[in-house]
Design brief:
This protein is mostly helical. It has one domain. α2 runs antiparallel to α3. It is rod-shaped. The termini are far apart.
């Protein structure tokens, strides 16, 4: 079974705003009901959702605060 990404390579190049617009466009055709969408539209929504999650996720470590590293010398221990 082919990967969804292979069918919609242009989605990877879209920014977050464009992805949200594309998703809204597809959903407007369905009037909010997923059952009325054809398979290609559902597959495109799947790829848009995956891309949105990946692009919206914060990169690893961002937002986390690290404890300051305290260096102790041998003189401090005595």
């Amino acid at each position: 079974m082919p990967e969804v990404r292979e069918h919609f390579p242009d989605i990877e190049n879209m920014d977050l705003g464009m992805l949200h617009e594309k998703r809204a466009e597809i959903m407007s055709r369905a009037n909010g009901n997923y059952e009325t969408l054809d398979d290609d539209s559902l597959a495109e929504l799947l790829q848009i959702g995956r891309t949105l999650r990946r692009k919206a996720a914060s990169p690893g470590g961002v937002g986390k605060t690290k404890k300051p590293k305290v260096e102790t010398s041998l003189d401090d221990l005595a």
